[in-house]
Amino acid sequence: MKTRRMLGIAAAMSFAAFTGARAADKPYDGVTLTLASQNDQFATVMADLAPKFKEATGITVKVDILSYPELLSKVTADFVGHTKGYDLATMDIVWAGQFAEGGYTVELSDLIKRDAAEIKPDDIYPVLMSALGNFKGKQVAFPFAGYANVLAYRTDLYAAAGLKPPETMEDMVANAYKLTDPPKHYGFVANGQKGPAVAQDWMQYNNEMGGSILGADGKPALNSAANIKSLTVYKDLFDKCAPPGAADFDWGGREESFRQGLAAQMQTWSIGAPGYFDPDKSKVVGKVAITVAPTGKGVPKKYGVGGWGMSINADIDEKHKEAAWLWIKWLTSPAVHKQFNLMGAGSYLRISETHDPELLAKFPFLPVIDEVFKNGDGEYRPRIPQYPQIQDLLGTAVNAVLIGHADPKKALDDAQAEAVKLF
User: Fold this and answer.
1) What is the DSSP letter of 302?
2) What is the pTM of this model?
3) Beta strands in 176-323 (DSSP E)
4) Which of 344, 367, 390 is at the close of a domain?
5) Cys-Cys link to 366, which of 86, 231, 249, 354 (CB 3.0-4.6 A)?
6) For 193-203, what is each residue's pLDDT tens digit?
7) What total of structural domains would you count in the chain?
8) Are residues 323 and 278 in the same domain?
9) CA distance 31 to 46
């Protein structure tokens, strides 16, 4: 607690230097902002930092921490109903098309140009600036939490089996079978739970195996031969290499199985990586490494990128919009965002962060995140207005395959038939 308190003080001091006269003048003193946040680990860190922001500006930021489905439901209802319940909302990478088409959030391009000297956009990874908030030229959110798709693996189990980190997806699948030794440990774990969890994890594997959700014409291609093949492999891994109950795992269950030593390897988002090295949370400290997620033979090495942007409700008044923009600039400023990650947010944004000696000493896997962001693909989950409905279709279809209610071809044929109606 003392360390976190000191980091918060340091962040406040950094903020004073960052905002200069604005902080001293406090033109937004007394303003309250309500922020709808995904319940990833960055949420509690934002809540911890909010009082320091108030000390410097007089602005109160209330962080409402919500589950993924609840967040999307609540902010969408707020935007569509123009109820102005939230001033700010964290925006998943895949919601950009929906937010842009609806005109729900403030278009930030002019503000970014106006305040470029403060923002230092050249220090932000281009893939994050694009994927975490820009849709067809509209900057509907500002990036603040970049995630790299990585492979976490048990170094002790790999060594005992005489294996090396996989270079291809085929290697990873083969290793999964070799590393499965129930009930001690299993060679594979992924999201299986019906809904966004299984849809998103399968799309990640599907991309790495050479599949695609959309065809070359931009229309759904859910039942392509490559997609059917990847879902068949995914099903087989669940049947033969995953822990019992994995078909009902979401992100939390998947991560916990790895931290508790039940899974020998796991593809995941980099935000979870700090937890593997934390003895208060993990039983695999000292026995885990992070590497880039492999792709299939012949598949271009475009690594998966995800994460969150921060959006401003277009319905709120100008004073609240400027106060909300001030919060975004503060949180994403080099000094504060570094503290944000030292406090455990696991949400990278800037090139300077992944090369920072203090952060590198605490999180030695940052060069892997740097490699992913430099060669990143933020489009494998299509950032189009129809994405939420496509995700729902796949979330039902893929789970049905995993629990034995449908075969891959039939499930994807049915999902395709519904998906084409959306276009």
Assistant:
1) -
2) 0.88
3) 265-269, 288-292, 303-312
4) 367
5) 354
6) 999 999 999 99
7) 2
8) no
9) 17
